[in-house]
TrEMBL record:
<protein>
    <recommendedName>
        <fullName>2',5'-phosphodiesterase 12</fullName>
    </recommendedName>
</protein>
<dbReference type="GO" id="GO:0140374">
    <property type="term" value="P:antiviral innate immune response"/>
</dbReference>
<keyword id="KW-0540">Nuclease</keyword>
<keyword id="KW-0496">Mitochondrion</keyword>
<feature type="domain" description="2',5'-phosphodiesterase 12-like N-terminal">
    <location>
        <begin position="147"/>
        <end position="249"/>
    </location>
</feature>
<dbReference type="GO" id="GO:0071346">
    <property type="term" value="P:cellular response to type II interferon"/>
</dbReference>
<keyword id="KW-0809">Transit peptide</keyword>
<dbReference type="GO" id="GO:0005759">
    <property type="term" value="C:mitochondrial matrix"/>
</dbReference>
<keyword id="KW-0507">mRNA processing</keyword>
<dbReference type="GO" id="GO:0046872">
    <property type="term" value="F:metal ion binding"/>
</dbReference>
<dbReference type="GO" id="GO:0044528">
    <property type="term" value="P:regulation of mitochondrial mRNA stability"/>
</dbReference>
<dbReference type="InterPro" id="IPR048821">
    <property type="entry name" value="PDE12-like_N"/>
</dbReference>
<keyword id="KW-0479">Metal-binding</keyword>
<keyword id="KW-0378">Hydrolase</keyword>
<feature type="region of interest" description="Disordered">
    <location>
        <begin position="77"/>
        <end position="99"/>
    </location>
</feature>
<dbReference type="Pfam" id="PF21171">
    <property type="entry name" value="PDE12-like_N"/>
</dbReference>
<dbReference type="GO" id="GO:0006397">
    <property type="term" value="P:mRNA processing"/>
</dbReference>
Amino acid sequence: MWQRLRAALGRLRAGGPAPGPVPAGMERAVVRCVPAEPKLSLRLVLPDGSTRHMQRDQAEPLGRALARLAATAAKGRAKAAKKSKKARAEPGEEAAAAGGEAAAVPAVRLFSRDGLAVAEEVPNAAAWQDGAVLQVGEARYRVERNPPAVTELRLPRSLLAGFPVCPKVSAEFAAPRHCVFRWYRQRRPADGEGGGGDAAWVEEAAGTERVFTPCNALVGLRLKLRCTPGDGERRYGQPCEVESSGPVEAGPGACTFDSRHLYTRKVCGHGSVRTVSYNILADTYAQTEFSRTVLYPYCAPYALEIDYRQNLLKKELAGYSADLICLQEVDKSVFVDSLAPALDAFGLEGLFKIKEKQHEGLATFYRRDKFSLLSQHDIAFSEALLSDPLHKELCDKLAEYPTVREKVLQRSSVLQVSVLQSATDPSKKICVANTHLYWHPKGGNIRLIQIAVALSHLKHVACDLHPSIPVIFCGDFNSTPSSGTYSFISSGGIAEDHEDWVSNGEEERCNMPLTHPFKLQSACGEPAYTNYVGGFHGCLDYIFIDKTALEVEQVIPLPSHEEVTTHQALPSVSHPSDHIALICDLKWK
């Protein structure tokens, strides 16, 4: 069979004419060819109406691929002919129809964009070029090599009027910023049937961006999104559509962050860096019976649902127009499916560091047109303490207190460290650190060890690897301004007789003096509280900055006490977390 097909293909190449002008409506032959993969794929609809999806070795000669395609097309023709004969034949003639000759092998040729036949010895990877023309019998196909394609398009399950709808868009050979978006709303009976298009949907005139904010008039109606993937070369692939699973619902009214957005409507200038630190309350902690009945009994159950809280959170974060965002208690699935796609649409690139043996961790986002990522230096405290020579002296000291040592090593806390470079002034670099320290009220001694490891690691990054770059250190430190941890960070040292060394009683005493070389200050001062729940309120979150290199331009005011306590405490129907975001504008000195 192969020899006959090869001979036929040879004759066709030798004497067959090149195809004429390519019609605008020509069928597509889609080729996916990625250098890192051994095979390429070819997908097209044959003249008999059947779809064929072939996979061939990239190094294979083109002639073999064309021969295989010819054989496949011949089988399709034979099946179609047999079916047609059976349909026309009398009952007694079916056997004769079934015994007819096989359909002839169609001519299959591939022509380059300039109309020349491609030699059969050419490897598949080089033969199937964008714009080439494939001829199968009388049918012709325009080859589209690696066309833009949507691989995933998803809408959030919860849609609120007045809150941005940020779809998850994953694409191959495309970028969301080059895609074309069209938003539609469900048609009401009063709309009538005019306007053409899909009778069930009406296009939203304002819905041409990746992010769409439904107005109150859309409450009760479902949404549909059509995404046409595109790339930087103005190539566009097949559109993909997705419909919302439910209708747009009414929003909660005024939120705690609305007044803060008045200060952050615009991205600050290139000489400034707007920084946010925020513990967003992991869903893995919010969705427990203990949380509903003990921690947050005052919060309406629906307001603890992740889809509802994500609506609030995305609107809140987008409205801050930040350059840097450091988040704690970020569920891995929330980062991948919700936050990263949403903030990407607003120009922010996201990095994630999961806690050891946990489902949540830390996320750092930076504005792409202001910064580029130079390097990452994330660590887990327990692992670094044991294995990194930087911490050998501290580890040796800790060995004298085995009970405390064991507790430190059991903790899953991590430190996320990113070195960024200014996009407009490459001489300006910054070290952004993000952490979430041990939570227990009596764990002051554990937190001192963790922060000592963190500051020693930051010294290595910001002094040894990247000499003299300023540090921004964000996080939920689970430490009030009166704590040893806060004092140690702010003053540069902690005495061996500080009371926090016995925070959990004499049996867990671990006295040791500690120092660090940084000059750090809390950029947002010492608010009355950054965490407000039914049984506790206090300041636990900070943005520490290198005061020798950075200064504070403005601190965005926190919500008023009246706003925080409108629904008794946090979280609530108008606030997505039990913490409050810290926001400040910084600039280089």
